[in-house]
Amino acid sequence: MQLTRTQTARAHSRRSLTDVQIQVLFIAPTIILLVLWNIFPLFYSLYLSFTEFSVIKPDVPPAWIGLQNYNKLLSDPRIWQYFTLTGRYVVTTVALQAIVGFGLALFLRERFKGSGLITTLILIPIMMSPVVIGLFWKLIYNPAFGIFNYLIGYSVPNSGPDWLGEASRALWAIIIVDVWMWSPFVMLLCLSGLKAIPDYLYEAAAIDRASPWFQFWRITLPQVAPLLLIAILFRTIEAFKTFDLVMGLTGGGPGDSTELIAVHLYRAAFTRFTTGESSALAYIILVIVIAVSNLYVRSLNRIRGES
Amino acid sequence: MTKKLGLLTLGLTAALVAGCAVPAAPAAPAAPAEQATAAPAGVTELTIWWAEWDPANYLQELANDYEKERGIKVNVVQEPWGTYYNKVTAEWAAKGTGYDMVVGDSQWLGQAATQGHYLDLTDFMKEKGLDKTVTPATLLYYGTYDGKYWAFPTEGDALGWAYRKDLFEDPAEKEAFKAKYGYDLDVPKDLLQLRDIAEFFTRPEKNLYGVAIYTQKDYDAITMGAQNFIFNFGADWKNDKFEVEGVLNTENAAKALELYRELYTKFMPPGLSNAFFQEMNDAFISGQAAMITNYFAFFPALVNSQTNPNYYDKVGFFSTPPGPGGVQFASLGGQGLSVNAYISPERQQAAKDFIEWFASKPVQEKWAALGGYTCNIEVLNSDTFKKATPYNPAFAETMNFVKDFWNIPEFGDLLVVSQRELSKYIVEGQGTAKEALDNIAREHTEILKKAGYLK
User: Fold this and answer.
1) CA nearest to A261, candidates B16, B206, B436
2) How many interface pairs between A and B have CB atoms less than 8 angstroms apart?
3) Is B360 exposed, middle or buried (0-12, 13-18, 19+ CB in 10 A)?
4) How far is A3 from chain B (nearest CA, A)?
5) Is B154 in contact with B103 (CB distance < 8 Å)?
6) A 236-255 residues with CB below 8 A of B?
7) H-helix or E-strand containing B318?
8) Residues B364-417 pLDDT 10s
9) CB spacing of B288 vs A144 below 8 angstroms
10) Which of B1, B2, B13 best tests the A interface by mutation, with the highest count of A CBs <10 A?
């Protein structure tokens, strides 16, 4: 009799676990981890951004200073200089990657002999570590024995420019590497978009004697645009965070001609250990990235709506 | 709690923007060794953190002897130079016990001492007489902060110079040099002679250049290279009252920087705009540079036939030459061995026992024989040491006039400024030497005022 009661209780207990409860049971560990590792530090670092605090001074607690860190950062002309530099870098690299990536996708849209191999070769840079790429390109740019100057027409060693040593060229040197590295990513997304365009659209356009330019402008581009914008969005966010490539190639120099904002943040957080100030800087960057991303997402939604 | 939260925040800050990885966890301790003798409260293994380079391998070899003698296994965990400081400071922030001893840079002393990360070794070193075994300069720079000892000088190091003997001793070169400059071609007796020799050997058409010097902006390379010249032209980072204005930004210091920039722009192999120790050795080994500066710790590769097949037997070494006024200093490298303040008293005692053993003369002799740069007075002055390698005589000489950058807790702030401004002038060519020094002096003064060193 007692055994029966226990069995009944267990059966009742199982029955009483609703679908929602089961969902909560499964999701809870993820939520807990998310809160512990993402949400809580996010808000705690927000708090720290209003304090004077250095993480390696264990006996000095954070001292509340209100908006002083933000005031200091936003009134520092050097920070604006680094933001401007980062902005130039982001716009240039992303624009070039969009053009090159889209061009490559158009080239590889039609299958031809060796197209698979070419596609694979083009994708190799994405698979490599940025630090390795930095060291690799440092050798390529070397004016004495690097191949880059030779390829652009300086056949005599040491006669070409020192790409990483001249302030006017160093940023372009990094941009070239970034475009080389990430254009294949844009190409990959565009290629999937191009291959998804139904043939009947082109057939109908051909029947109407639409020119290739008209077909590109009215069919190809609008169809690929959502994926292209996603690629641009990802690349914009990533370009804002560019760090390892710069450290590998120039270390932020010469002077501070390639000191992108992420590199500057690294120095503030890990060389100077101004944790409060670097938290504030991280939030300023975060807000800018969110704002820019928002613009992209709105454009994306508009294009989707139109299509 | 605050410290842990802070660490977490630091990690998030990095992840948010830089996408940096959280510093790696310390290596898992090796299996406990069989104990031959009693160790403090059953301590069977110790962990030392050091940067990834040859001296750390030599230390591990010595540590293996320690295990045989005392039965305590000592693991030397190596971290690449680029991330070494980050790894250690992350451990400090967490009050971590991932290591028992750390071989830390001289510049860290003030920070580690005042913030409580290192154990005070003053009484221990005095009681055991360890402070008397090493040269005063190394004890001061690698071990002392605020009158107390925080580290035992372990790896003495400083900037020195290597040169191509085949070029310097070539009769035709000697004749041509004397005809052009009016004195004999030899190891430079001052920095102006170094400039002449650099100019003489600069022959771009033969891919040969006179000199290679530090230019890297990351961490401290260009500051270490340029401060040699600043010191030897009679200027300094500060005076005894921590005043910078008028001490650093002097006419002499400007001349020193102008010379450094001249060497970089006119007589250095191209493509070395972000160069540190590896690039220096590369320039020498490839036959591009007639002279290079580098820390002595990186010179073994130059006399090794495997790593320098063309010139390993044609390389000579000299100390950093004095300036035109005869002042002679050399930028300090090297590190001291410190004990983690957060480990248990038993482990602290075990660590001290290891340091005492390491400081003994027989061990220091073996340390030097392996390739470590001992700071032990007797070993340094012995003929055995001076004859052991071609670079040891220059090293022993240099250890008498080493000089350091700031080692106060604010050194990181100060270093960021000097790196930026020196790189701006020397590599980028922006502004004048005086402007660069004025900028550094102004910003350093602000930092020192904020930290309370200056009113």
Assistant:
1) B16
2) 170
3) middle
4) 50
5) yes
6) 240-241, 243-244, 247, 249-255
7) strand B315-319
8) 999 998 888 999 999 988 998 888 889 999 998 998 888 989 989 888 899 999
9) yes
10) B13
